[in-house]
Amino acid sequence: MACLVAGSAAAAGFGLPAANAGSGTEPPPSGSAAKPGAPAPAPQARALVLVVGQGPILVPPSRSVVLQCSPRGGGTHPRTQEACSLLQPVSGDLQRIKPPRLLVCSAEYQPVTVSSVGVWDDHFVLSLRTFTNNCELTKTLGAVTAF
């Protein structure tokens, strides 16, 4: 399953609220320049629940963790800073993380599946990705699934 972000057509098909849903009376977006003396905007939420399961489905899960990247690092993930650094350029979407080309894994088929659900920059995020084996999972997601 690809990443679903609230407000997208795919998210609407799952009954998820649009990112800017409301009465239509919201004020127009303000300019990017901050007003002098105005407080800095609050950091946007970035938190995911990650679940790994052996096989092509997640049931039963073999391990899970909470990763909180913002407003401050936290959760139960042992390598929060590294995992958040890998997820930041892809907006928390596991599908968009590409494996390094120089690492090679064996071709054995022992599938492992990882899912993430949570919020990234205040948008709902849901990702599901299955890898051929643990080597492919580790090669691609690195610190994200190092728990």
Automatic annotation (TrEMBL):
Homodimer. Residues 46-133 form the Subtilisin inhibitor domain. It comes from Sphaerisporangium corydalis. Residues 31-40 have a biased composition (Low complexity). GO terms for molecular function: peptidase inhibitor activity. Belongs to the protease inhibitor I16 (SSI) family. This is Subtilase-type protease inhibitor. Residues 20-40 are annotated as: Disordered. Residues 1-21 form the signal peptide. The keyword Acyltransferase does not apply.
